[in-house]
Amino acid sequence: MALSKEQRRQRIHYRIRKTVAGSAERPRLAVFRSNKEIYAQLIDDVRGVTITAASSRDKDIDASKVNKTEAAKLVGKSIAEKAIKAGVDSVAFDRGGYLYHGRVKSLAEGAREGGLKF
């Protein structure tokens, strides 16, 4: 029996998580993409805490009334800005089992433009 889309993504995500881990110096930039929104978190896996987060549901991004790809770029810039305030400049990118394409790619490019290195 074939895997559903969600099962396939979950399997890919587990495979990625075997190699990608975050620390206090280099946290993991985790991406979650739903049909309407996109979310990003900086996670320290050693302590098991979220350092900062941003999403397309934030008031400043939601009020901008742009399409989903442009909103993802704004989320990337927002997470980069928050990360730099928290003293983080380098991250490990965790695409969450999604293809590096479209909104996920746009978020990554926005984070790089905001000053994050990965």
UniProtKB/TrEMBL annotation:
One of its GO terms (molecular function) is 5S rRNA binding. InterPro entries: Ribosomal_L18, Ribosomal_uL18_bac-type, Ribosomal_uL18_bac/plant/anim. Signal peptide: none annotated. The keyword Metal-binding does not apply. The keyword Ribonucleoprotein applies. GO terms for biological process: translation. One of its GO terms (cellular component) is cytosolic large ribosomal subunit. Gene3D superfamilies: 3.30.420.100. It comes from the Bacteria. Keywords: Ribonucleoprotein, Ribosomal protein, RNA-binding, rRNA-binding. This is one of the proteins that bind and probably mediate the attachment of the 5S RNA into the large ribosomal subunit, where it forms part of the central protuberance. Part of the 50S ribosomal subunit; part of the 5S rRNA/L5/L18/L25 subcomplex. Contacts the 5S and 23S rRNAs. Belongs to the universal ribosomal protein uL18 family. HAMAP family: Ribosomal_uL18_B (MF_01337_B). This is Large ribosomal subunit protein uL18. It comes from Aureitalea marina.
